[in-house]
TrEMBL record:
Ranges of residues in domain Threonine/Serine exporter ThrE: 37-156
Subcellular location: Membrane
Any Pfam family hit: ThrE_2
Keywords: Membrane, Transmembrane, Transmembrane helix
Lineage: Bacteria, Candidatus Eiseniibacteriota
Stretch forming the signal peptide: none
Organism domain of life: Bacteria
Bilayer-spanning residue ranges: 26-46, 53-72, 78-95, 107-127, 139-159
UniProt record similarity statement: Belongs to the ThrE exporter (TC 2.A.79) family.
InterPro entries xrefs: ThrE/Ser_Exporter, ThrE_2
Membrane topology: Multi-pass membrane protein
GO annotation, cellular component aspect: membrane
Keyword Membrane tagged: yes
Protein name from the UniProt record: Threonine/serine exporter family protein
Species assigned in the record: Eiseniibacteriota bacterium
Length: 165
C-alpha cells in the first residue's frame, strides 16, 4: 500500500494527472501460457518436487476453469465459490488417493483465486480520494474472499482428506 501511495504521488508530481487505463480480458493464448507457466513457478515458490508438476498444473487449471465458468454463469462471487469448491474436492480426493498432503495442490490452486487485484484497485481508489469506488472494490474483494472460504468449507464437508496435516 505504501509503495502504491508513494508511486502515485511521485507520478503526479512529475507528470501531472494519472492516465485512465481501460482493462480488457486477456487473449486466450496468453491465458493458456499463464496456466502452463504458473505451476512451474508455484513449484519453485513452494519447493515442490518436479514430479508434482502435473498435479499442481491440474489443480490450477481446474480452479481457473471452474471459477471462470462459474463467474460467467452465476457472477464473480459464485465463480470463486465454485472454483474453491472444485479445488477442495479435487485436492482432498487426490490426497486420499495418492497419500500426499492436501496442501500440495490446494495452495497453488488458491493462489489462482485470491482477489489481490481487487485489493489493489480498492487501495488505488482510496488513495485517489475516490472513497465510494474504493469501498465498493473493498466490499467486493471481501465477498470474493468469503466465497473462497465457503467453497473450501463445503469441499471439506463433501470429502475430507485422509488425515489433517
Amino acid at each position: 500500500g505504501f509503495g502504491v501511495g508513494i508511486g502515485t504521488k511521485l507520478f503526479v508530481a512529475m507528470f501531472g494527472v494519472l492516465p485512465e487505463i481501460e482493462t480488457s480480458s486477456a487473449p486466450l493464448l496468453l491465458v493458456g501460457a499463464a496456466l502452463l507457466i504458473s505451476p512451474a513457478t508455484f513449484m519453485v515458490l513452494f519447493g515442490a518436487r518436479p514430479r508434482a508438476f502435473f498435479w499442481i498444473f491440474a489443480a490450477s487449471a481446474l480452479t481457473y476453469v471452474c471459477a471462470r465458468m462459474g463467474a460467467a454463469t452465476m457472477g464473480p462471487e459464485l465463480g470463486a465459490f465454485l472454483g474453491s469448491f472444485a479445488l477442495g474436492v479435487a485436492s482432498n480426493g487426490l490426497a486420499r488417493w495418492r497419500r500426499h498432503p492436501t496442501s500440495l495442490t490446494l495452495v497453488p490452486g488458491l493462489i489462482m483465486l485470491v482477489p489481490g487485484s481487487l485489493g489493489f484497485q480498492s487501495l488505488s481508489a482510496l488513495l485517489s480520494h475516490n472513497v465510494v469506488s474504493g469501498m465498493e472494490a473493498a466490499f467486493f474483494m471481501l465477498m470474493v474472499a468469503v466465497s473462497i472460504v465457503t467453497g473450501l468449507l463445503m469441499a471439506n464437508a463433501a470429502i475430507s482428506p485422509r488425515k489433517a496435516l
